[in-house]
Amino acid sequence: MDPCKEKIAIIGLGYVGLPLAVEFGKKQPVLGFDVNVARINELTDGRDSTLEVSAANLKSANHLSFSNDTNLLNDCTIFIVTVPTPIDSANRPDLSPLIKASKTVGGALKKGSIVIYESTVYPGCTEEVCVPILESTSGLKFNIDFFCGYSPERINPGDKVNTLTTIKKITSGSNPETADVVDALYAKIIKAGTWKASSIKVAEAAKVIENSQRDLNIAFVNELSVIFDRLEIDTLEVLEAAGSKWNFMPFRPGMVGGHCIGVDPYYLTHKAEEVGYHPQVILAGRRINDNMARYAARNMIKRMLQNGIDVSRSTIGVMGVTFKENCPDIRNSKVADLIKEIEAWGAKVRVMDAWADALEVNQEYGIELRNIDSQNKVDSLIVAVGHSQYRELSPETLMSYCNTNKQPVIGDLKCLYDRHSLIKAGFTVFRF
């Protein structure tokens, strides 16, 4: 098979699937498939609500079409699955989107087809969970009639520098021949080059440890921030001082949300426990990071009480609800946990966000986005996300958003502002 001449189906057109469909669609026939009709309609109209792909870039993919019609998958021979792999309320892997996608692809498989998975999974998932579904649905035999590959996504939502084509891509295949085909396919669009792993399991494992490593490093500095707060030391000043050493790693404390760092470690620990090992370090890091929203809320409440603010009659403003700056992605946002904790103390919360879709936020979290400004004041303020619009605000402007009958508290959770300038403007400051 010459992969560069085959028609590709991209299953799932979110933050991962759409950029992939666009890049391949500049080179060869691609069907972008998604079960979300609204998503298909907006992409057909040349709009991307995730803001990952510009209208001009979307238009440049001359060989790309979009549909939710499963019958059109029958024309494809290469299938790339990019559906989300979340966790459930008990932090267990939720493979239902992956299972549904595998059933859909299985119905369109033919002899010689290749199915490549990009969704984050635990080591072994592709061959242990997905392949049996493909076999039973298609009636074909794995590694005889059809073949599989795994190439983990490395998309960083909102990042316009480190994009799909500029990040090295791990590839793998279910046998050496398939590995070569998969690698050649991606090499055609990835300017940064590819890294061919020795097996699908190795590629799967590489993906989950990338984000588990980041999670643990953030957990370390989060724990430091808790310690330093009790010692009345500014964590940022400590990290900046330590950063003067050439090999100090510049991680910053904060709430860990999103679709990767706060989720992927649970896929690894799930598999570890399946094979009889109870992870300690990874789960300890997860516990620390999952507790940071509650920690931030309680520290805000404590400082407000110390300033004589009646919490039960107060309104706390929260600026930013997306999981990261300059991006509309609200998946697994820990700001929602922060808001719940504040409300549990009896305070009202007023939430704004310069990037998030108000309807999506309301549907996902039951949070109504409103304005916070000099005409819509609050009693204390939390700047939870580092959107560029918030970075540009002066401490004096932030103070104009607050009632001043009692000294307001500001939670500068992303350390966007100079601490001394905030104090000079009249705030009591809390930051990680």
UniProtKB/TrEMBL annotation:
One of its GO terms (molecular function) is oxidoreductase activity, acting on the CH-OH group of donors, NAD or NADP as acceptor. Keywords: NAD, Oxidoreductase. Residues 317-419 form the UDP-glucose/GDP-mannose dehydrogenase C-terminal domain. It comes from the Bacteria. InterPro entries: 6-PGluconate_DH-like_C_sf, NAD(P)-bd_dom_sf, UDP-Glc/GDP-Man, UDP-Glc/GDP-Man_DH_C, UDP-Glc/GDP-Man_DH_C_sf, UDP-Glc/GDP-Man_DH_dimer, UDP-Glc/GDP-Man_DH_N, UDP_ManNAc/GlcNAc_DH. One of its GO terms (biological process) is polysaccharide biosynthetic process. It holds the Pfam family UDPG_MGDP_dh. Belongs to the UDP-glucose/GDP-mannose dehydrogenase family. This is Nucleotide sugar dehydrogenase.
